[in-house]
Amino acid sequence: MRPHLLRLLALTATSAALAGCGDDRPAATAGNDSSAVGGTLVIAAPAEADILIPALVNSIEGKKVADMVFEPLAEIGASLNTVGDEGFQPRLAERWTWAPDSQSIAFHLNPRARWHDGRPVRAEDVRFTHALYVDPDVASPQAPNVSDIDSVSVRDSLTAVFWFKRRFPEQFFTAVYHMHVLPKHLLGDTPAAALKSAPFARQPVGTGRFRFSRWTPSERLELVADTAHYRGRAKLDRVVFSIAPDFTAATTKLFAGEADFFEVMRPEQMPELARNASLKAVPYAGLDVGYMLFNMRDAKAGARPHPVLGDVAVRRALTMALDRETMVRSVLDSFGMVPLGPHVRATSGADASVPQIAYDPARAAALLDSAGWRDADGDGVREKAGRPLAFRLLVPNSSKNRVRYGVLIQDQLKKAGVAVTIEELDFNAFSERLMTRRFDAAIDARHLDPSPTVIKQSWGGQAARARESSNYGSYANARFDAAIDSASAATDPARSRTFLRQAYRTLNEDAPAVWLYEPRMVAGAHKRLQITGMRADAWWAGIADWTVAPGQRIARDRLGLASAAAPAPVRLANGSR
Amino acid sequence: MGRYLAGRVAQALVTVALVATVTFVLLHLAPGDPCLDIEGRGVSAELRERCRVAYGLDRPLPEQYVRYLAALARGDLGWSPSLQEPVRSALARALPNTLLLMGAALALAFGAGIAMGVAQARRAGSLLDRVSGSLSMAVHALPDFWLATILLLVFAYWIPILPVTGTSDDLVYESLSPLGKVADRLYHMVLPALTLALLLFAAVARHQRAALLEVAHEDYVRTARAKGLGERGVLRHALRNALLPVITLFGLAMPALVGGAVFVERIFNWPGMGQLAVTAVTRRDYWVVTACVVVVSAMVAAGNLLADLLHAAADPRLRDR
Amino acid sequence: MGATVVAESAGELTPPRSRTPLGGPAVRVGRELRGHPRTRVALALLAGLVVATVGAPLLAPHDPNAVLDAVALKSLPPSLAHPFGTDPYSRDVLSRVLFGGRVTLGVALLAAAVTMGVGTAYGAAAALAGPRTDAALMRVVDAMLSLPRVLLLFALVALWGQVTVPLLVLFLGLTSWFGVSRLVRAEVRALREREFVVAARALGGGTVAVFFRHLLPNIAAPLLVAGTLAVRNVILLEAGLSFLGVGVPHPLASWGSVIRDGADQVAVHWWITVFPGLAIVLTVLALDALGDGLREALDPRQLPRP
């Protein structure tokens, strides 16, 4: 036999033998696992973190790490209430006091709070953090979100005071949600331009219950529990983000036993998940919504209204012609719902009483006829004054859901006499076309902010005019603006909801977009994990309290905290099956 | 020899410059830039403009081109906006992985391929020849990603004996002994290298067989036989010439291998240059794409040069140029 | 793309030999091809494929783009009603494979034609031009050959946004001609010193006329082989590109795009990937066998048959 073939066979045989050697059975005695502390969690990450400084992070993977290594002053509650301070949990601030005139809030820091390098957390750090977030040279993506904070002052070493430009219901939310406190003693001397390339950007030092351990780019990022944490150590010993190039590869890691958790299970994978003896499905709420956005303006000449989609009758007819229930069931199975508007049911402003446009192909046809769009030449496509009822639909190829929707929409609208051409672009080109408003329609999706009034950035009139924000379709309606502004200003949650309802109603009537899907999230996780505290805006919010059931430890859980203390060298097996 | 080498190096440099130019033109013609929204959370126009200025993207194209070439000539590969680190660090990570994979695949493919081709030629027309020939044709006809996907299915889902992702174990690699580390890496390399090697192996075997069969009828072989040299001796004579086309194949196999590696790296999550380049294209990370392309063409030029030198070493007629 | 570019470049490794023009031997070639069992099978297979794809409107049970029932008939495994199953949009995979064959084979043939045309012209021009022009022209070819083709195509298509089928043909064709140009250059260089060429030029024939009347017939044989290679390479490339997410626009079916539609669920919905994949493998195999047969048949110094 050829020597190289022989080598290959030997290697395969050895590997097979070693794989069988893995100690996968749960510990027979629960003796030394009596406390729920310990364990290793491997998360399959479908992308890589970019930078680990909270003020600069621009990727969701980076945000997860930043959330675990750093802390805000207070954490939003599970109900995602953003009005006042109800539901917020103390973090770096153990308590806070409102000034009688509500123009300022004083945060009293926990005196036992320490940075991972041992130094105590001071109010100076809070002031430094705010200054960093709003520094134009730093160019933090979060800067617009904290623009309503006028300044932060230091009353004493443990008290930082936030001053606001005006009174509004979401003051507290604005102060605490978007900023993680950063260490002045480590970053204070770094010039803004050098932040991105500073060592801190890839080896952060924070105050969270996890501390940063190491990062091998493209492969893994490891965090370990901060055992001396002032609020109690994280229950798990370590969390490893195992980085995959895309969703498919991440799913493979989970099913191959190389990871314990992956945040997105598709409906097609549920039977396999059920068959797998060591995995379970974990549903959780999400804040994503997908919709087909129409461009109100002509893609080629921005001042004119869109020749086809500028007419509200056409837009309403298109909405009526689409069977959204069927599409949701086809693309997402039981993992999605038709949204009620550009919001999700998990946020505090959601309202089921707002009237929706129902699926009614007959009415759609009648509406199009009366708007002057008829199929005169019998080619299956309606025309009006020589112009066919056709438009190009932009779809990013990075999202399977959106591609699926594109094909189904194309098919359904064909039956209504509308010719849709799908333009599938990569995400970068897709973003470019949206930002420059060069599109007819596009399937866009949003990961929403807990605050319901964030939709002003996507549908507000001012946003349409200033090409700053994300109102790519240039939708503008004064009634909507008034309703949203009143909702933001109302201090009473009930009144706020009334105004929100008006805003949603206006949107539904004008149909600037067709609300397509609101995914129900399901994660795949190893059965031994006891998962808690998953929040709609961040499923990882309670990760410091996840535990591994004592009697179900597997090989990777026994690695312990010190990486040098790994047991026997023959640990090449994947660890769990 | 020195002049020849110098000439070849000069040629290679011109090639690299051409390649860099083509890449520049392609990338800058495309819509989008590295400063756009990467996660779907919106990037304000102002931030985007700042980013563009910071990376010099607001300058006129000819100026950007000159700066770009000048930086390349200096060896300055730049900063990657998508990875937020110097391009040279990203390359320093990805290149060894790719070289490792390609080296293993080349060794496997050429070793097994040459051996198989010789065996087939020696028994030309026999059942073994025909069957193995058809099998290798069948393998050669498989699309790379298909083969990789099938192997993944088999070894991830049906017979889980090999790891299917990454270059090393996520958890224990750091704590393994040096021997353990090598073993772990080899273990992770089996599937991706096997996939890459299989396709190349079929081509090499076919080539070697054809080349040897052609040579078998040359006069010098008949002479050797007539002189009474044993089969081994005749084979050695024949092989020295029959190896030449296969050596040329080696030079040509480089870009093909890198191309195939794009699929294999993606499917098996092997963080090499293929994956780096594809991700960089989608993020419009001009600097990373350029660096990858330049490095690949340098590797190809080196491969070709090596093949030519081997040729010259094997065939004295080619030596004086 | 280990198999593709290697195969293509392999064509040019056979050194140019003296060759008698085609014409008389055409009959011999035909007999050779029919004689060898492997080539007979290949031809039969190809004929079958062509008939199946051309006759798709008659053979396919459903409209390939028809969404039959987006919920109930989505991603069904093979059955009597749907022998190849359905895809995630509840479209019949058998119909899509049949109609997809037209697109894939059509694109492959057209792109191969572009490749052969451009490559031949470029290679001949380089061979017949002065040494400096020749060197410059081939330097460009070297540069382009050192770019991994899949990456180049991926970049082109990804960056261009959505490509229409004609544009895809153009991209595929214009990125595959480099090896052909090398081959043609080598062949023409070997022939240009031959007496009949020198004579023709001396008699005042323009270069182009000389090329078409005297050179082309003599290089027709290796060109034909290179042609089959070009077609099979484009088929594999198109499939690979579709797998990476770029290729023919929705809802058009091609073998690559059918695979792409099911690529994210290969383990669960294997039929969406396996059947078009088999079609590709069979076609490529047949083309390879045909190419081998042609190479042997057209070579005047034949290898002894067993």
How do the strands and helices of this protein lay out in sequence?
The complex is a heterotrimer of chains A (577), B (321) and C (306).
Chain A: H1 3-21, E1 40-45, H2 60-69, E2 74-75, E3 89-90, E4 93-98, E5 104-109, H3 123-134, E6 149-156, E7 159-164, H4 171-176, H5 184-187, E8 210-216, E9 220-225, E10 238-243, H6 247-255, E11 261-262, H7 270-275, E12 279-284, E13 288-294, H8 312-321, H9 324-332, E14 336-337, H10 361-370, E15 383-384, E16 387-388, E17 390-396, H11 400-415, E18 419-425, H12 427-435, E19 441-447, H13 456-459, H14 461-465, H15 478-489, H16 493-510, E20 513-519, E21 521-526, E22 529-530, E23 547-548
Parallel strand pairs in A: 1-10, 17-18, 17-19
Antiparallel strand pairs in A: 2-3, 4-5, 5-7, 6-7, 8-9, 9-10, 11-21, 12-21, 13-19, 13-20, 14-20, 15-16, 22-23
Chain B: H1 2-29, H2 45-54, H3 61-74, E1 79-80, E2 85-86, H4 87-122, H5 127-140, H6 144-158, H7 178-215, H8 219-226, H9 231-268, H10 273-282, H11 286-314
Antiparallel strand pairs in B: 1-2
Chain C: H1 2-11, H2 25-35, H3 37-54, H4 56-59, H5 93-128, H6 131-145, H7 149-160, H8 165-174, H9 178-192, H10 195-202, H11 207-244, H12 255-262, H13 270-297
Helix pairs in contact in C: 1-11, 2-13, 3-5, 3-13, 5-6, 5-8, 5-9, 5-11, 5-12, 5-13, 6-9, 9-11, 10-11, 11-12, 11-13, 12-13
Report what the structure shows.
The complex is a heterotrimer of chains A (577), B (321) and C (306). Chain A is of the alpha+beta class and 577 residues long. Chain A folds into 3 domains: 3-67 and 200-282 and 521-559, 3-Layer(aba) Sandwich (D-Maltodextrin-Binding Protein, domain 2), CATH 3.40.190.10; 74-187, Dipeptide-binding Protein, Domain 1 (Dipeptide-binding Protein, domain 1, Alpha-Beta Complex); 288-519, Dipeptide-binding Protein, domain 3, CATH 3.10.105.10. Chain A has 16 helices and 23 strands. Chain A has helices at residues 3-21, 60-69, 123-134, 171-176, 184-187, 247-255, 270-275, 312-321, 324-332, 361-370, 400-415, 427-435, 456-459, 461-465, 478-489, 493-510; strands at 40-45, 74-75, 89-90, 93-98, 104-109, 149-156, 159-164, 210-216, 220-225, 238-243, 261-262, 279-284, 288-294, 336-337, 383-384, 387-388, 390-396, 419-425, 441-447, 513-519, 521-526, 529-530, 547-548. In chain A, strand 4 (93-98) and strand 5 (104-109) form a beta hairpin. The two termini of chain A are 35 Å apart. The model of chain A is unreliable at 1-34 and 564-577 (pLDDT under 50). Chain B is an all-alpha fold and 321 residues long. Chain B has 2 domains: 2-86, no CATH class; 91-319, MetI-like fold, CATH 1.10.3720. Chain B is built from 11 helices and 2 strands, in the order αααββαααααααα. A two-stranded antiparallel ribbon of chain B has the order 1-2. Chain C has 306 residues and is an all-alpha fold. Chain C has 13 helices and no strands. Chain C has helices at residues 2-11, 25-35, 37-54, 56-59, 93-128, 131-145, 149-160, 165-174, 178-192, 195-202, 207-244, 255-262, 270-297. The longest helix of chain C has 38 residues, at 207-244. Mean pLDDT of chain C is 80; it is low at 8-23 and 302-306. The chains are: A alpha+beta (577), B mainly alpha (321), C mainly alpha (306). At the A-B interface, helix 1, helix 6, helix 12 and strand 19 of A face helix 2, strand 2, helix 4, helix 6 and helix 7 of B.
